Amino acid sequence: MSQPKQGQPRLFAQLPLLDGTLEQHRAQLGADFIAYRNHAYRVANFCSALAPSAVAGEPVISIAAAFHDLGIWTGRTFDYLQPSRQLASDYLDDADYRSMGELVDAMICQHHKIRPYRGTEGELIGVFRQADWVDVTGGFITASIPKGFLADVFARFPNAGFHRCLLRLTCRHAVLHPLKPLPMIRW
What we know:
- The protein is mainly α.
- The chain is 57% helix and 0% strand.
- The chain has one domain.
């Protein structure tokens, strides 16, 4: 964890739980391993910036960040929310983190929700959703995260082809499923 600049959130450069979880899926991620790892780290750090009480090192954030899009690679599908949720559920059961099951599931299920999430544990689910949108838009949507912190996180965890991968997957899925081009979007 690096020391924050004056008035900025703390940047988490190492999250052992996140790294350990992703390492278990290195083969499935293949050439996209670094791109996805960096995306997960950016999301975790943006969560901490948006809700300082929700520290990136907390297991729930690391686990949700690790699994939220993983079904793209493990399930080989762009309709990946259910495979990602199932992977997380299996992991939580095996790692004896069952108590986090509902929250992690909601964080994954709702992370592409367009409208604000309203429900139990809404703050952290909403923060996770916003953090993912900040990253997917490359910081165009800032969600009030200081621009200096955004720059630091993007520099520490570069894109490494993540957005190019998403564009490729989006185009391929849209051609194959023109009536449902973005199946992960929730209203």
